[in-house]
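I am hoping you can look over what I have pasted underneath with an eye to the fold:
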Amino acid sequence: MHSNRDKEEMDGGGEIEGTGDANEFPSAIRGRKYSPVVAHDNDRAVLEMSTIDPRSSSDPKKAKANMQPDVASEGSMPNHSVNGPQRESKLELFGFDSLVNILGLKSMTGDQIQAPPSPRDGGDVSITLERPRPIAVKSGTLMGVFVPCLQNIMGIIYYIRFSWIVGMAGIGESLLLVAFCGSCTFLTTISLSAIATNGAMKGGGPYYLIGRALGPEVGVSIGLCFFLGNAVAGAMYVLGAVETFLDAVPAAGILRETVTRVNGTDMAEPITRPSLHDLQIYGIVVTILLCFIVFGGVKMINRVAPAFLVPVVFSLVCIFSGILLARHDHPAVGITGLSSESFKENWGPAYQRTSNAGIPDPNGKIYWSFNALVGLFFPAVTGIMAGSNRSASLKDTQRSIPVGTLAATLTTTGLYIVSVLFFGSVATRDKLLTDRLLTASIAWPFPAIVYVGIILSTLGAALQSLTGAPRLLAAIANDDILPVLNYFKVVDGSEPHVATFFTAFICIGCVVIGNLDLISPTITMFYLLCYAGVNLSCFLLDLLDAPSWRPRWKFHHWSLSLVGALLCIVIMFLISWAFTVVSLALASLIYYYVSIKGKAGDWGDGFKSAYFQLALRSLRSLGASQVHPKNWYPIPLIFCRPWGKLPENVPCHPKLADFANCMKKKGRGMSIFISIIDGDYHERAEDAKAACKQLCTYIDYKECEGVAEIVVAPNMSEGFRGIVQTMGLGNLKPNIIVMRYPEIWRRENLTEIPATFVGIINDCIVAYKAVVIVKGLDEWPNEYQRQYGTIDLYWIVRDGGLMLLLSQLLLTKDSFEGCKIQVFCIAEEDSDAEGLKADVKKFLYDLRMQAEVIVISMKSWEGQGEQQESIEAFSAAQGRIASYLGEMKERAERDKTPLMADGKPVVVNEQQVEKFLYTTLKLNSTILKYSRMAAVVFVSLPPPPANHPAFFYMEYMDLLVENVPRLLIVRGYRRDVVTLFT
């Protein structure tokens, strides 16, 4: 809902153009004016830093609408007149907007009207009036889910192979087989029901569920595999129906083939079988006819579906009637009727070798086992996704999918269990193994009904495949993840004609091939892969139990989903490990392609929730105690633009991210990029959001692992003081503050910089944060610029080993790997020099660091000549300090106040000032003497002296860094970051 502030901004200057008559608006809308807001676009990367700008440069079109005012007085809330007479709003306190009252609920459910976006979301606010779209035909539970699932599950395997399976496995193991495969689909149905009832569900069925739970890459890869499986399965069903028809009516064959010799021997009675060309011709014709039905839309499909289902149900009645009416004296050989003797005889398994046709043969090439029967029978229980594939055509997905799918699963599983008991009791084992059409042999009153049932069941399954597959493909295309699928997009409520053409093309191509034995196991693998994805999605969502996880279907648990996923994987390997590897490889290739070519889709998937939970658990396990040096990682807080101005549209110095990457080993670690905007938060909140987007673009462009934060504060000092206290969580708080040295402060006469700079350093010291100040950032090398020479460390004070560690991290980068480290130790007395050198060498050896150690005593400074440029800088600094001190004294005498600087009293010891200047002079001369050719120079950061003006400290620092091209000024934070121990 819009806040009052949103409303005030929206009530501003510009007006919006209406596409229709203003009188068509409800009175609560009339009289409202909305100011256009410039849209933001943060998705494009750039090659030049100066062109990084997430905001669109194009101005939005300004529009007007002639709306009649409907308010009593200016500034008052508009009266509502949607239902009944006008009255005063009772919810003014909560800042409700009248437009939201009318459109809000409908836009939440994604129905007919969408509420305009908030100006704070960065989108143009517009109101468009459209003519109502024709309401698409929606299906209920029976015709939308139950019938499609039933038609897909009840296939040709039940009619021509199920009795044979009972004869081969026996009644006992057949029941186990049905329970094993049925448990997989039942558990998948439970998971499907839970996810489908957790909110509004668009088109795409299992793809939509998996994609929203496991992410777009996984969703698209499994969704495309499932689409391919449905399309090829349609060809399988068509070929099965055509082959059964030609077996039942041989005279219909155009090009019949006659087999007279088998394995080189003549046959007593030649066998006539359908020709491959007959299968192709009839298969193409049937596929085209089914496609015409699919093109007719959901209404046509719902009309035709009963014509395919009713004869199937009638054939089942005839089969069971024949079983119950069968007698011992039945003329058919091997038909015993319902007999306890047959039940006992057929209870145990009879695994053996058979020919390719399934006839027992001791010399047969195929040996059947329980694992092999799993692969043969499992396609008979697939098809539970047929209803969810049509989710976009359902009236109520949250009710229809669970009820319809579960009813179809339980109905068919019960039918299979009863059939196992009846088939095992009605015939001998030899009859079960040799009569492939036992269902037709025992059907009452005549076998032709079963042939009709077989043909119509397979055609019904083919119709459902050709209906679900295009809708699945269109749903994937509509999500706009893969641009290559844009041709298959459809408008909501429209039929996916292009996707249907493509599905028909694949189906006809497979029909032309004719022999699908090589790829039919892969189809089963795609189904199992989809089922495993649904189970894993429910497992992840149920285990994480995010606040948004509130499914209406309560009969679920993460353990059931996990068992279901494991069952799917086990069945895949039981059927064929080779085809399992092929299907997983294909899904992996699609996943890899989507991750490279696909667009980002932030769907709030379960993995994001898992990362969040893992981060919370890791953060709690880290605790708030001090991190051990062995586990210490630098977490730099990069101060992006504290001094001066950068070019327009450049949110950060281009080399700061390069330097931040140098502080990480192999890129591991997190950086926090911070910028401060001066002003009032309420006035500049939108500027902060835009700047944050801009900074994020910069971080992505520089390929730096980090996050961006923009803070609005009255001034830089207060902003940084808040940041250094609050930024981060637990032990994931930033531990190093990185900023650029303010080299421009004197050149551009920026008088506020010294106080701000000194305040930031003092804040870091108080907060126990390490500080790294980079001088010469413009010359810092990128990853392609190789550096040679030395990395020189002027180690003056103990800093916990931070300076040593940073130098070692530099060596891990390609640009500095050719450098060597030199450690310069400053000793106060000559007598300490040798002992200090030995101690430092031993220390570096124990730290596994290779470096040359050089000890310089302070007494030796007296005898060496200073560098000429250092002397000139020293003299200039003395003059400026004297002038500044004189102005302070004059002001204090005039105002009769103590010496004041930076708004606070100071105490100036002129001898101490001279001592500090002299110390920095000597150190600068030493650096220029030994490290002129160094790639990088490290030096300890002196803390700002108490009661000294910030101007003085800047003079000390300027003298220290004078003429040193690339310098890192480092201060530790009273904690060890390196350790001697393993």
